[in-house]
Design goal:
Helix content: 40-55%
Order of helices and strands: HEHEHEHEHE
Oligomer: single chain
Shape: globular
Distance between the termini: 68 Å
CATH superfamily: DsrEFH-like
Structural class: alpha/beta
Radius of gyration: 22 Å
Number of helices: 5
CATH architecture: 3-Layer(aba) Sandwich
CATH class: Alpha Beta
CATH topology: Hypothetical Protein Ychn, Chain: A
Length: 140
Amino acid sequence: MKTPIKHITMWCFVLFSAITLQAQNENAETLNYLILSKNIQQLKPALITANALAKEDGKTYGNLYVVFCGKTVQDIADNSEFNALLKDINSNQVKIFICGLSLNKFNVNPADLPKNIQVVENGILYAFQLKKQGFISLTI
């Protein structure tokens, strides 16, 4: 019995589609998140959010970056609650950044900041650069 070419073409299409869908699932895009904040009190909700996103996203979860800008940078060095929360940032790929322009404006010495905080020259510019890289962002 001869198989019509139409049936062969259809089965080839179905097989190709299945292979393509499987490859897309295996190469799922990593989801990275950014929070730009002017309030260090947002660190605790950011950590809670990171935990929820890691569970929700599963293997596609990448990182959650938090960038603090503005006057709030004055309150970081001596804030025991904030510094205690920083000990939790190793879980769920959370990274904390501080705006260097804000540090300069409010006369905060970067050496007074906890060691696991990174200073970026311009927090707003850094946020835009991360957006260009595909980070999902929120300003609070």
